[in-house]
Structures are given as structure tokens and as C-alpha cells.
Amino acid sequence: MWSSDKWKDYELLDASDGERLERWGKYILVRPDPQVIWKGCATHPAWKKADAVYRRSSNGGGGWVKNTLPKQWNIDYGELSFVLRPMGFKHTGLFPEQAANWDWFSELIRGSGRSIKVLNLFAYTGGATVAAAKAGASVVHVDAAKGMVAQAKENAALSGLEKAPIRYIVDDCKKFVEREIRRGNRYDAIIMDPPSYGRGPSGEVWKIEDSADELITLTAKLLSDDPLFFLVNSYTTGLSPMTMKYILDLRIAKRFGGRTDTGELGLRISATGGFLPCGASARWTSQR
């Protein structure tokens, strides 16, 4: 289990009956989580003091049944700062479990002793982008959602990175990769956080378990002659961590050597000391 113990502004207080109880800065949120299959274990007193509660609908979707939160507020993770905006589909604009990955690749970047060029695909609101830039890398940030890219720019500015070498691209990630290959551009490190399910620009269905190998194989063509790392995240049970490891070994380690590790990302539950699984990552690095 990969988990960060450095959070001060985020805390998973408790989890029970399909929901997680979280503290984001000074605000308490209750949100659904399909991994929380245990019942009758809610013990933390803050369940009764939540500032916002999101509930699933029996007809699909869901909404905030209680919400006294401000429109937005900021939280910090070390030197990084992020703006939070609760959304209609339960998200806040940040996945705190990813801090474990930020710590991992930031150490690699700082310890490389050279300039590192990072490509961040499906980059969302830029958590990985600002972490890589703060560590000293130049970053190309790509996401198809204009609003998410705009929020990534806000996060960079909040983190003192408004003048950092970050290039923001609103585009379909696969099409961008294909163009970068034709242009001959190369990257020392690649981060990708593809969605579990979606539709492409022409209406084609995207399922990560069907498309992961094709996407990784294609994107690996953008690696430089001396790459530092390749990181893939998955939030679907349909793509196991070991499957992702096998693909990275086959498409990257076979070519460059190095090592591939894989594991679940998790958040420690304060009420019990246990961990809530929050997806998985496969990490390849040239450093053994």
C-alpha cells in the first residue's frame, strides 16, 4: 500500500456504510465510496457535524443533500497549494491519495541532477503537474476539459509556479500523443491518469482495460533516450496492478531496463488506523 503521511490539510476521519468522512482544511465532507463495503462501523463524532453530504440516487447519479460549504477554498500539501470546488458529481477537484505518487517522482526529479521534461496526460486539475514543476521539471499538461486545465493554472499560481515552465494543452490525449510522435518531441518522464470509461471525440467507447496496452505502447514512443520514469494510474477494478506492471515491463523495461513496481494507493482512516484502497499505480523508473 502506497500512502502519504504528510497531509496536514486533508484527513480521512472515518469510513462506513458506503461513505467516507473527510476533513478538507476546516470543512467536513461525507461522500460515497464503493470500496467502503463494511457496515455499522461509524464511530467518529464528526459524522453528525458534516458541512456537506453527497448521496447517490437510486436512479443513478446523485447530489449534495446538504452543502454549507463556500464556493471554493484552498488547502496545502507542503509547498503545494490547491483550490477546491465541490462538483455535482461528488469530486472536490483533488485526489489526496495521489500525494504518494507526487512524493515518489519529486524525489526522482530532484535527485536526477539534470533537466527533466515531463508529459502529464489526463492531467485533470494539475496535482501531478504542480508537484513535478515544484521539483524542478518542465511540464506539458494535457487534458480534454477546458475547465480542469483552467483550474490547473490556478493551482500552479497558488503554488508560486505562475512563471514555471508549464505548457497547458486542451486536447484529446491520444491525438496529442500521436501528433507529438510525428513532431519528434520526446519526454524524460510520463504521467498518465486515464479515465476508467468514456467516449472519444468521435463517440467511440473508451474502457481502460481494453485500451491500456495500446495507449501505453503509443505513449512510450515519446520517451527520450535516457528516460527517468513512467507512471500509470488506474481507478478501475477491471485493470489489476499486476496487469499494468506487465505492460510496463513489456513496453518500457524491456527496452530501457530499470525496474517496475506496482501497488494500491491508500488513505489511512484515522478512526481505525487501517487503510482505504483508492486505486492503483504502476511505476517504472530507470533507477534500480
Descriptive terms for the model:
288 residues, alpha/beta, seven-stranded mixed beta sheet, 6 helices, 25% helix, globular
Shape: globular
Please estimate the helix content: 25-40%
**Strand share of the residues?**
25-35%
List segments where confidence is low: pLDDT < 50 over at least 5 consecutive residues.
none
**Span between N and C termini?**
20 Å
Order of SSEs, N→C?
EEEEEEEHEHEHEHEEEHEHEE
Tell me the major beta sheet. Answer: 7 strands, mixed
Mean pLDDT: 94
Query: What is the number of helices?
Result: 6
Give an account of the 3D structure.
The chain has 288 residues and is α/β, with parallel strands linked by helices. It has helices spanning 99-111, 127-134, 146-158, 173-183, 208-219, 241-256, and strands at 10-16, 19-24, 27-32, 52-56, 62-67, 73-77, 80-84, 117-121, 138-143, 166-170, 189-192, 197-199, 205-207, 229-234, 259-268, 275-285. Helix 1 runs parallel beside helix 2 (127-134) and helix 5 runs parallel beside helix 6 (241-256). The mean pLDDT is 94.
